[in-house]
Design a protein that fits this description.
The complex is a heterodimer. In chain A, 38% of the residues lie in helices and 13% in strands. Chain A is an alpha/beta fold. An 11-stranded mixed β-sheet of chain A has the order 1-3-2-4-6-5-10-11-9-7-8, with helices on both faces. In chain A, helix 3 links the parallel strand 2 and strand 3. Chain B has 15 helices and 12 strands. In chain B, a hairpin with a 2-residue loop joins strand 3 and strand 4. The interface between A and B is large, with 45 and 31 residues.
């Protein structure tokens, strides 16, 4: 009997390598778990019955193109679309022998922080199904948390891996921009999108990241990794300089229970030998969110222009081309993509470009410089990942700004192109709290080893209480 | 430009496509190194500066031939800027300023079925062929330095020849691998003001462009002379019907929402690459026109160079003027590739030209490409040049046409051609026209 709730990907790899369990048996065990628990959670948009590969199966966020397997970005406009090619990350998983379990739910086009914006219905949090799993990679994090996948890939633009990982009590890495190929990833905001691993443990994340990361000739923005990804072994944090950015830890809206769990974790870091000090990122936190909501929608307005009903996906027939475009896009896009297309189109318009998109890009440089300055004193910066624990379904759907605030703490480092890792660090009101670690560019190994030492010391039980 | 699909103009529709040029979800562009290098090479030929950094921008607009909903182009930081291109003319060079040359991707081809004028509005349905989608396209923008239809034509011909010789495009208008739009404005003599311009589109040949400009200049001049104002508009010509009035469309101030393409990093061509490409630049056609002009005059020099026949000219011995003329007339008429011609064989044909019939000469010229070894045999088919053979024929013709002989002697010298024609007919075209002329003149003088 395979306990998919407890089994880590690393353990599963061991079982397969030692011949104790076949890849097909593993795949079957997860499909059974999906059959049992997914009707309640709706983490998957589709599953794959026939495993391709003998390794540990994987779930992919449904923005990752998979040859012959529907890829919808949780949008009606891509209903029924089956890619003719694999995204580079999907191809690398295949090449590593990881069979595809299925495609996971998300906010439409990865636009959202709760997975409620899916055109195919929301995903529920395995810790409390009345609550959201976070988003936009909520399907992937819920699947891992509920034992419906040993590991998964998500994508992160403003916090779409870190924030749902936090809300679901799993580990998620948003890698340094340019280290993981975006080829084949349904684009949201090209200068921010990055694919990353989601798993129950830091070591699982490192294993998966090692498989997918690295330069891809098909993505001009990727680079060679300066060092190979190591499996973390660290048991202490001696000599590590940990910075606590004041604004990320004292922002309005951070729940007391979240602060408590995070502060305990910072204390633990000190006990493990780290030197802890305070630092500031004033402009990054004040301007990060507003600038993000200029840059991301601007790029999205352009990236989503290809869904025009001409070549694939939905088409609402009409007498002339203009009306066909309008009706197709009206019927195919949900409210959030429409809102962002409008925002972005406006921000890029003649006469507004300099004040909005152009200015936001300049602020981005300021944010990067501010982070660089902090990293002169510290090796890792820490904060809560999300200001709150998982909120109730429907609680923020009527108020886009309240929803946007869910990414307040993840956006600044994303805007700077830096890697960030979220690990569960405790519970507040019975729900997981995420601890965010931010590193310098290409410092994934340091983030993994730091997080691994903390993870060991924290002894967080990643199986949701109600499923134990 | 950004994918690996083959450029194939006449292949069946949609047989050279991939996720990138079809704009499938998730596909990303990767710039074509060759296209970037060739654009820099062209930039050198146009006397441009190559900035340290060039940036691709997205130009956003919806149209079925634009699969991504944006075209990747260059905006305020193109690959080549501030050039000048010398166009030799009969009375000195015209220097045409080059504003910029930038690299972008071509659109797909649309065919609108039903409706009028092949336009999308009113069409029953439209078909899209993505073979051309994503083909590298260089756009060259000149400064307003061209002063006449003739100059425009000379500039375009020389530019085309330059592009062909650099080996970066076949630049064939019928394939659409060379296209141009012409902006026209007029002003009173002596003024240096630039007035409202109109843009002429669908110009598919050099002559057509020259005629279109001429017509447009006349039209604008008439408007000003009758006290009117020229509207800024675009005129679409019907390439199939040169005299048809152009379709007009007002220039809408379309907002393309340009922004830097986030899927690509800036192009920063290494100084060594830029220098190497400059060194690779061959002698340009304009310089060769100037060089040949001293031997054979401007018209023949320009004709040889812009037709790509000057290289054959340089390896064909003989009187320079005669060789140039043969290349521009008899050789041009064969439609053969000058590079494939045997210069020695051609020189031999030209040397013996006066001893063979025009027909034999043309045959020999054509054989200089198709079968140079047969030239000797062809040229052996000499024309009848022996007066003792020709005289009886000539006498017969003259006595059979006494009235015409009388007219000729009465001053109608134009009748000489008639007699020559009769003799040629009688000899089955085998008479040497030069000798026939001489003999006829002599006999008619008597």
């Amino acid at each position: 009997m395979i306990d998919t709730l407890r089994l880590t990907a690393e353990e599963a790899t061991g079982l397969v390598e030692r011949g104790e369990v076949s890849g097909a048996e593993l795949h079957r065990a997860y499909l059974d778990a999906i059959g049992e628990r997914d009707p309640e959670l709706h983490a998957y948009l589709c599953t794959v019955d026939e495993p391709e590969g003998e390794g540990v199966p994987i779930a992919l966020k449904d923005v990752i193109s998979t040859r012959g397997v529907p890829t919808t970005a949780a949008s009606k406009i891509l209903e029924g679309y089956k890619p003719v090619y694999d995204a580079t990350v999907a191809a690398r998983c295949k090449a590593a022998g990881l069979p595809l379990l299925g495609k996971t739910n998300l906010d439409e086009f990865a636009m959202g922080s709760s997975t409620e914006n899916s055109a195919y219905g929301p995903t529920h949090n395995p810790w409390d199904p009345s609550r959201v799993p976070g988003g936009s990679s909520g399907g992937s994090t819920a699947a891992v948390a509920a034992g419906l996948a040993p590991w998964a890939l998500g994508s992160d633009t403003g916090g779409s891996i870190k924030q749902p990982a936090s809300l679901c009590g799993v580990v998620g890495l948003r890698p340094t921009y340019g280290t993981v190929s975006r080829y084949g990833i349904v684009a949201f905001a090209s200068s921010l999108d990055q694919v990353g691993p989601i798993a129950k443990t830091v070591r699982d994340c490192a294993l998966l990241h090692r498989i997918v990361a690295g330069r891809d000739p098909l993505d001009s923005t990727t680079v060679e990794l300066p060092e190979t990804i190591e499996l973390p072994e660290a048991e202490d944090l001696k000599g590590l300089r940990v910075g606590v950015p004041k604004e990320l830890n004292e922002a309005d809206g951070i729940e007391p229970g979240v602060s408590e769990a995070v502060n305990r974790t910072i204390e633990l870091a000190r006990e493990l030998g780290a030197e802890v000090g305070e630092c500031t990122l004033p402009r990054s936190v004040e301007f990060g969110l507003p600038c993000y909501y200029l840059i991301a929608p601007s790029e999205a307005s352009s990236n989503l222009a290809r869904y025009d009903g001409v070549r694939y996906g939905l088409r609402v027939e009409s007498g002339d081309i203009r009306t066909m475009y309008e009706r197709t896009r009206d019927a195919g896009f949900g409210d959030e993509p429409k809102r962002r297309i409008m925002l972005g189109t406006y921000a890029l318009s003649a006469g507004y470009y300099d004040a909005y998109y152009g200015q936001a890009q300049k602020v981005r440089t300021v944010i990067r410089d501010e982070h660089d300055a902090a990293f002169e004193q510290f090796d890792v910066l820490v904060s809560p990942t999300s200001p709150t624990v998982a909120f109730e379904l429907g609680a923020r759907t009527a108020n886009p700004l309240a929803m946007y605030a869910a990414d307040l703490l993840t956006i600044p480092s994303n805007m700077a192109g830096l890697p960030g890792l979220s690990i569960p660090c405790g519970l507040s009101e019975g729900l997981p709290v995420g601890f965010q670690l931010i590193g310098r560019q290409f410092s994934e190994n340091l983030l993994f080893s730091t997080a691994h030492a903390l993870e060991r010391a924290l002894e967080f039980d990643f199986v949701p209480e109600r499923l134990r | 430009m950004f994918c690996r699909c083959e450029v194939a103009y006449f292949d069946p529709p949609n047989t050279h496509t991939c996720p990138v040029c079809l704009a499938l979800p998730g596909a990303l562009p990767v710039p074509n190194r060759q296209a970037v290098e060739w654009t820099i090479l062209l930039g050198h030929a146009l006397g441009c500066q190559i900035p340290d950094r060039a940036i691709f921008h997205r130009k956003n607009y919806f149209y079925p031939d634009n699969p991504k909903g944006y075209q990747i182009s260059q905006y305020d930081q193109p690959l080549c800027v501030n050039g000048s291109f010398e166009v030799p003319g009969p009375d000195g060079d015209r220097v045409v300023g080059i504003e910029r040359a930038h690299l972008e991707e071509d659109a797909a081809k649309t065919i609108h079925v039903g409706g009028v004028e092949g336009r999308i509005h009113g069409a029953e349905h439209s078909l899209v062929d993505f073979n051309r989608s994503g083909t590298p396209l260089v756009e060259i923008v000149t400064r307003p330095d061209i002063r006449s239809p003739e100059e425009a034509k000379a500039f375009l011909q020389l530019l085309r020849q330059t592009i062909v010789e650099l080996g970066i495009s076949d630049a064939e208008m019928e394939k659409g691998s060379l296209r141009f739009d012409v902006n026209v404005s007029v002003r009173p003599e002596g003024s240096d003001e630039l007035r409202t311009r109109t843009e002429l589109k669908n110009m598919n040949s050099f002559n057509f462009a020259a005629k279109g400009i001429e017509r447009e200049v006349r039209r604008q001049a008439e408007i000003y002379e009758s006290g009117g104002q020229v509207d800024q508009e675009t005129l679409h010509f019907d390439p199939g019907n040169e005299s048809a009035p152009p379709l007009r469309s007002k220039e809408e101030a379309q907002d393309y929402r340009y922004f830097p393409e986030p899927d690509l990093v800036p192009l920063e061509p290494a100084a060594e690459l830029v220098d190497r490409l400059r060194e690779e630049l061959p002698e340009l056609p304009s310089a060769r026109v100037r060089r040949l002009e001293t031997e054979i005059g401007f018209v023949l020099a320009e004709g040889l160079v812009t037709s790509g026949r000057d290289e054959l000219y340089s390896r064909t011995a003989g009187d320079r003027q005669v060789v140039a003329n043969v290349l521009m007339n008899e050789f041009a008429a064969t439609g053969q590739d000058p590079a494939a011609a045997d210069g020695a064989a051609l020189a031999e044909a030209i040397r013996l030209r006066s001893e063979v019939t025009p027909e034999t000469f043309r045959e020999a010229v054509a054989a200089s490409v198709s079968n140079p070894a047969s030239i000797g045999l062809i040229l052996e088919n000499r024309a009848i040049s022996d007066p003792s053979e020709l005289d009886p024929v000539i006498d017969r013709i003259l006595s059979a046409n006494e009235a015409q002989v009388a007219d000729y002697r009465g001053g109608k010298e134009g009748l000489l051609g008639f007699f020559v024609g009769q003799v040629m007919k009688e000899t089955g075209g085998k008479a040497n026209p030069k000798i026939v002329n001489e003999r006829l003149r002599e006999k008619l003088r008597a």
